[in-house]
Design goal:
Layout (H helix, E strand, L loop, with lengths): L8 E2 L2 E2 H13 L6 E3 L2 E4 L5 E10 L2 E11 L14 H23 L4 E10 L3 H4 L13 E9 L3 H14 L1 H7 L12
Antiparallel strand pairs: 1-2, 3-5, 4-5, 5-6, 7-8
Helix pairs in contact: 2-4, 2-5
Length: 187
């Protein structure tokens, strides 16, 4: 969304590009529309492969070519070849927040020296296995710690921390009930 040939980079983030995108979307909200999709195939047992072939950003199709492989640990009767769905879910939350911290720090002119997010949660398998209907099949809560080091002040990092919690799509998706609309096709 920017046409400048010399880019302003901070923390590996093209700050001119981000500012240009903000300006473009502010002037024309149609550029804000995105669409994400994946297709997952069963590979036997508890293994699956998810293909990511495209997304749409601002009305433009973006070709992609990624495979996300998923499995379960041996203790949950998988082959332990890949991270399981819960680990991918937590990784997606962390990675989304990392994008937010990177972007906001860069836009504020803060150089990041170190940044990590550690997230954990507990699931009681009695809910998942249908043993006890009073037990939730998912998390009661997720706990996360953000560690950040850079040339910003504590107040700047606190402001950015709150902004990330207010604007991270995956933080929102996990913190807020998102309606799921299903369709079953039996072939």
């Amino acid at each position: 969304m920017t046409t400048t040939t010399e880019l302003t980079m901070l923390n590996g983030v093209n700050t001119d590009g981000v500012r240009g995108a903000i300006d473009t979307i502010t002037q024309d909200p149609s550029h804000a529309k995105t669409h994400w999709q994946v297709a997952t195939q069963w590979r036997g047992g508890f293994r699956s492969d998810t293909r990511v072939t495209e997304c749409t950003i601002g009305g433009q199709r973006v070709a992609k070519d990624f495979t996300i492989r998923v499995d379960e640990p041996l203790q949950l009767f998988g082959t332990n070849q890949y991270a399981n769905p819960q680990e991918h879910l937590l990784a997606a939350l962390n990675a989304c927040m990392i994008v937010g911290y990177s972007a906001l720090c860069s836009l504020e002119g803060i150089e990041i020296q170190a940044l990590s997010v550690e997230t954990e949660g507990d699931i009681d398998l009695r809910g998942f296995l249908g043993i006890d209907s009073t037990v939730k099949p998912g998390y009661d809560q997720l706990r996360y710690t953000v560690r950040i080091k850079g040339n910003g002040s504590a107040e700047q990092f606190e402001k950015i921390h709150h902004a990330v919690m207010a604007t991270s799509p995956n933080y929102f998706n996990l913190a807020t009930a998102v309606p799921l609309k299903s369709r079953l096709v039996v072939e």
